[in-house]
From TrEMBL, chain A:
Annotated ranges, domain Transcription regulator PadR N-terminal: 23-96
Protein name (record): PadR family transcriptional regulator
Highest rank taxon of the organism: Bacteria
Ranges that cross the membrane: none
Source organism of the structure: Cellulomonas composti
Pfam families: PadR
TrEMBL record, chain B:
Name of the protein this chain belongs to: DUF4153 domain-containing protein
Signal peptide: none
Transmembrane segments: 106-126, 132-150, 159-178, 190-209, 230-254, 266-284, 296-317, 329-346, 367-386, 398-417, 437-455
The keyword Membrane belongs to this UniProt entry's keyword annotation: yes
Keywords: Membrane, Transmembrane, Transmembrane helix
InterPro entries, A to Z: Perm_prefix_1 (IPR047928)
Organism (species): Cellulomonas composti
Length: 126, 458
């Protein structure tokens, strides 16, 4: 579904799994339009996590249908119509659930990394 | 010169974006709104790349590449918006082999229609009134189900289960010793069985329509859409066919040849199932000029039905004390409520779930509220009537249907209310509809199979 990019190649299944919490989390900071979300993803991952731009929109529509985000049309500075997305209360709940799930996964992985031989990444010990 | 060049380049870029937009819009799963959203993304990406030092052409090419393979993107859109996928399911054939398959499908369907016609003809020739009423649905629907089973490669297990179930129902209702009273009127339980049987068979046919994936919400919704469109196509074809037959009669009347026997004994048994099968194929193939008729029809009939419901409510309340309300009126109310729910279901199935709430959703909520009021009054009248005069098959069936409709209406009303108040999603309204469909199948099965023995076949 998505292409990994940058120095580390990230498998598309992993990118797809991370997409929903990532988008919901980015929208938790405030309303954004689609391209701004993509730019934010790039900033947060130093450009290492890259999506195929077009794939973001079906995802956003799915989140909208589930009632996790709401959308409204607006006019950009250039006078073109532009769709803004806002996190809803239901989306905030889902985000909290996802965060709890990912915490469990990250915690388990951290323990696995630390028991691996060789020097583990610095942040894994923190 | 330095003043001219950027403007030229800019015009170039606009041309390229125009072309790109046209190309995107050629995909049926992508609506103009989606394209505008993608274009906004493209422009944002181009602007950033230009700011980073690329020229227009380079920036455009990179931005288009970053957008991804349009086939994949459009497939993703189609997956997310299954109602669009349904519309484009067949449309224009994508390849010659697909066109060939369409004609093969039609051939199979016509063959099955002829077999159904023969079955109807045999039934009409050898059956009496009672057995025709019970078996007409068995003579037509299994053949349409066979078509779906064939075209969707239904698993042998599901097919066997459906055949077994249908056969068991057929044997049971034909063995039931329905009592005919002295005046020759059919037993009430017979009438109930004969009227509920097609509903049960139709919902079983739904299992083959979904290709066995009948638990899936989107597939169930497809079946609802199919049912609504089929009703419209069948009505249109029947109108045209009726007109042709009338002209046929008039023509032969002029030359003094009596064709009534031919029309009655041969034309009807084949033409009616034939029209039904062709309508089914047309809906499947979507060779439609009336593609977008569903939203239009629902917008016309929702206000009219609301008026009808209010009138019905007035008639019910003006009819005197509730226990004195005419029995026929109560049965009529059930019919009206059933119509309202069919209309609701049809308009919900035709609606884009992402579209924000409009006045039409409020109107629909009004319709549900009016139906709810009628339902409550009818329910009260029925309970009063039953507590006065005891349970009969007829009253129990009417009451049961009323309760089934009551739960459906309450759920729909509640979810629509949440949606209109922006507290819920339209998706929830949709899911409630498809989740509730099996209740109708279960109720029809109860009336068909359990009522006759429970009321001693009277």
């Amino acid at each position: 579904m998505y292409n990994g990019g940058g120095r580390v190649h990230i498998e598309k299944d992993l990118v797809a799994a991370a997409a929903t919490p990532l988008v919901l989390g980015i929208l938790a900071d405030g309303d954004l339009h689609g391209y701004a979300i993509l730019k934010r993803v790039g900033e947060l991952s130093d450009g290492r996590l890259q999506w195929t731009d077009g794939m973001l929109y079906p995802l956003l529509h799915r989140l909208e249908r589930n009632g996790w985000v709401s959308a409204r049309w607006d006019v950009s500075d250039a006078g073109r119509k532009r769709k803004h997305y806002t996190l809803t209360a239901a989306g905030r709940e889902v985000l909290a659930q996802r965060q709890a799930q990912w915490d469990v996964v990250a915690d388990a992985l951290r323990q696995v990394w630390s028991s691996l031989q060789g020097p583990p990444p610095a942040e894994a010990r923190a | 010169m330095s003043d001219e060049r950027p403007r030229d380049e800019h015009v170039d870029l606009e041309d390229q974006i125009d072309q790109w937009r046209t190309w995107v819009l050629r995909r049926r799963a992508i609506t103009p709104d989606d394209a505008a959203e993608l274009e906004d993304n493209l422009r944002g990406r181009v602007a950033d790349l230009r700011a980073a030092g690329l020229d227009d052409d380079e920036a455009f090419l990179v931005a288009v590449r970053r957008m991804g393979n349009l086939d994949d993107v459009s497939r993703e859109f189609a997956r997310e918006h299954s109602e669009r996928l349904w519309k484009q399911l067949v449309l224009v054939p994508d390849s010659p082999s697909e066109a060939g398959r369409r004609w093969r499908d039609l051939g199979v369907l016509i063959a099955l229609a002829v077999v159904a016609g023969v079955a109807v003809k045999l039934l009409v020739t050898f059956g009496d009134d009672a057995s025709i009423g019970l078996n007409l649905a068995f003579a037509v629907l299994p053949f349409l189900a066979a078509y779906f089973a064939w075209s969707r490669h239904l698993s042998a297990r599901t097919a066997a289960a459906l055949v077994g179930l249908t056969a068991a129902v057929a044997v049971a209702v034909n063995l039931y010793p329905f009592v005919t009273d002295g005046s020759g009127d059919a037993a009430m339980t017979y009438v109930l069985t004969a009227t509920h049987l097609p509903v049960l068979l139709w919902l079983l046919l739904g299992v083959t329509y979904t290709g066995g994936l009948w638990r899936d919400h989107a597939r169930r919704m497809d079946f609802v859409r199919f049912t609504g469109e089929l009703a419209i196509y069948f009505a249109l074809i029947s109108l045209g066919g009726g007109l042709l037959v009338a002209l046929l009669f008039a023509t032969f009347d002029v030359v003094d040849i009596d064709i009534e026997a031919f029309v009655g004994e041969w034309l009807w048994p084949f033409a009616v199932p034939g029209a039904f099968f062709v309508a089914a194929w047309l809906v499947e193939a979507k060779k439609s000029v009336v593609e977008n008729i569903a939203p239009v029809l629902t917008r016309v009939f929702t206000p009219l039905t609301l008026v009808l419901l209010v009138a019905a409510l007035v008639a019910l309340l003006a009819g005197g004390p509730l226990d004195a309300v005419d029995r026929d009126l109560l049965i009529l109310m059930d019919a009206i409520l059933l119509l309202v729910l069919a209309l609701l279901l049809y308009s919900i199935s035709a609606r884009d779930p992402l579209h924000p709430g409009t006045w039409f959703d409020r109107l629909q909520l009004g319709l549900v509220a009016a139906a709810f009021a009628v339902n409550v009054v009818t329910l009260t009248a029925m309970v009063t009537r039953i507590s006065d005069a005891g349970w009969t098959a007829n009253k129990t069936a009417a009451l049961g249907l009323n309760v089934v409709l009551f739960v459906h209406l309450t759920g729909t009303g509640w979810l629509l209310w949440r949606f209109v108040r922006a507290r819920g999603t339209f998706d929830a309204v949709e899911r409630w509809q498809t989740r509730y469909l099996p209740v109708y199948a279960a109720w029809a099965a109860i009336v068909v199979l359990l009522f006759p023995p429970a009321f001693s076949f009277a």
